[in-house]
Amino acid sequence: MREAENVIVADQLTKKFGDFTAVDAISFKVKKGEIFGFLGANGAGKTTAMKMLIGISKPSSGTATVAGFDVYTQTEAIKKNIGYMSQKFALYDDLTVKENITFFGGIYGLPRKKIKEKREELISQLGLENISNKLVGSLPLGWKQKLSFSVSLLHEPKIVFLDEPTGGVDPITRRHFWEMIYKAANQGTTIFVTTHYMDEAEYCDRVSIMVEGKIEALETPKKLKEQFNVASMNDVFLKLARNIE
Amino acid sequence: MKRFIGFIKKEFYHIFRDRRSLFILFGMPIAQILLFGFAITNEINNVDIAILDHSKDATTEEIINKISASKYFTIKQMIANEAEIEPAFKKGKIKAVLNFEKDFSKNLIKNQNATIQIITDATDPNTANSITNYINAILQNYRQSENKAIQIEYQIIPQTRMVYNPELKSVFMFVPGVMTIILMLVSAMMTSISITREKELGTMEILLVSPLKPFQVIIGKVVPYIFLSVINAIVIVVLSIFIFKMPVQGSLFLLGLESVLFIITSLALGILISTISKTQQAAMMISLMGLMLPVILLSGFIFPVSSMPVPLQIISNIIPAKWFIIILKGIMLKGVGMAFIWKETLILIGMTLFFTGLSVKKYKIRLE
Question: H or E segment at B126?
Fold first, then answer.
């Protein structure tokens, strides 16, 4: 089988804020259709690294391409080809489910007919038929997260960036959420997900672990566990963090 | 363009579904204009006064008649002696007492000189001042009419004429001020709050990751407020014309144009505020403390700039509202055209460009 193409390539990517190096020369490649876990403690530089990849923060040095476009010069093209869901729930509470979908479809420039199609499809998939005219603010958090994820896929992006998408959600909803992620990945969408739930790391095809701005490990969860000779990703993470100290 | 319309539609949903912002947008302007127009006034009307007349002769009677004939004063009480003055004030109704000296008429003829004591209740200094001025004016008037009969060798008769607001209606002064405050508040505060709200909720990040360009996001947020502010300006002008008989001597078109300019200046300020504040609360505090207070105190809205200490006069120059009030007064009361207010207009345009440039710079730094 032919080697799948790389959709994200980062080489020595670095971000400095004054004297502080938030992201220190990280290099990695992500393949098409892969679920790539981007792990690290709070403040390890995950979000900063992600911001460079999605084109809202300029790297200090190094190179990277996302969906084949350069993060320095082609941010507009990158933005058209990616979806993004942040750790804060980010739909509009004072708009209805339908209005939210229409709005986000609109800012990605989808034609009206397409938006309508997608909207019906999405609402029936999520089972929101009865409440599609309710304000999003009145929905339970779990439904909001799922809706938010679906909205980030609305324009059929090549890559979806998820920044701690399951923060504050109960285990059952998290399970459902991951089912949705798998489904999207099976359809060829690349998933780039940050998390600090180590059990979620087990669901990823490959994970990278960032400690103090550097990538200290990058492998499949299985190989990482073998390498560190432990039973769970949680232990991998703890061992790694201790070694650094 | 279609993206843009969708964006603006969303912005209107936000505004119309939030009762608080609806109230600030439409309730407040009307409440303020009525409040300032009716409740706050420097004029005096039917003020109750008392008379203590020690002479009771032809001259004093004539003066008293003149005073009671004016619509400004009502003679409520005749007082017999000095001891009754204090109790009259203390009851609270009487705002001034006129005390004619003994032998008023006789002194006037013999010495060309007679004394009236005007005692006013200065618990409210503004009213006390106005009362004194009005009574003086009536006395002056009386003296002039008398002097016509007796020829004095030379005299100076000042003829005062108040132009542009001959009746000294205070509402003429308040309307431009209130209009300025409301446009400033709606434009600057509401936009800065609505932009910081997106930041707080995290939706700003989503918008910045979308193919919309940052300036499109900002313009999309601002356009609805331009529209609503223009409606507000129209409501204020209509209210003041029909309820307070405020004249608009100059061109309505020019008035509209200048108002749009000031709205844009305020929006630019609002955007600037939103780039330096992280939360809605901060944006609101900066708008209220940083904009409202200077506008009320230093713009010449209530206190004339020319009687301020020099340092404050210099500071007042950097307040956009000051220039807009000058423009408004010029157009509404004096009926001047662009030839007289081009300087103020240029200053406002300059300020708008400055604020916009500064916001763009701040914005870029944030994105770095």
Answer: helix B125-147
Report the pLDDT averaged over residues B268-278: 90
Q: Tell me what the mean pLDDT of segment B224-237 comes to.
A: 90
Greater model confidence, A94 or B170: A94
DSSP string, B53-119: ESS--HHHHHHHHHHHHSTTEEEEEEE-SGGGHHHHHHTS---EEEEEPTTHHHHHHHHS---EEEE
Tell me, yes or no, if B145 comes closer than 8 A to chain A by beta carbon.
no
Q: Which domains does chain B have, with CATH numbers?
A: 16-40+168-362 (no CATH), 47-144 (3.40.1710.10)
Q: Which of A187, A196, A193 is nearest to A168 (CA)?
A: A196
Of A56, A82, A103, Cβ closest to residue B208:
A56
For chain B, the C-alpha Rg in angstroms (whole number) is: 28
What residues in B contact A92, CB-CB < 8 Å? 10, 13-14, 201, 203
Q: Is A113 on the interface with B (CB under 8 A)?
A: no
pLDDT for residue B151: 56
What is the bridge-based pairing of β-strands A61-66 and A6-17? antiparallel
Condensed to tens digits (0 to 9), the pLDDT of residues B20-78 reads 888 888 888 888 888 877 776 666 778 889 999 888 888 888 889 888 888 888 888 88
Most B-contacting residue of A86, A107, A160 (CB-CB within 10 A), to test interface: A107
Closest among B191, B174, B175, B181 to B320, alpha carbons compared: B181
Residue B13 in contact with partner chain A when CB distance is under 8 A: yes
**CA A99 to CA A207: how far, in whole Å?**
36
- Per the CB < 8 Å rule, is B202 touching A88? yes
Judge whether residue B368 has pLDDT over 60. no
Which of these, B8, B215, B218, B6, lies nearest to A108 by C-alpha position?
B6
Q: Do B211 and A90 touch (CB under 8 A)?
A: no
Residue range B226-254: mean pLDDT, rounded? 89
Find all residues with CB under 8 Å of A173, minimum gap 6, and list them: A141, A142, A145, A146, A166
* pLDDT at B40 (0 to 100): 65
Q: Does B365 touch chain A (CB under 8 A)?
A: no
Per-residue pLDDT tens for B280-289?
A: 999 989 988 8
Q: The complex's ipTM?
A: 0.85
B279 touches chain A (CB under 8 A): no
Positions in chain A whose pLDDT score sits under 50 = 1-2
3-class SS at B133? helix
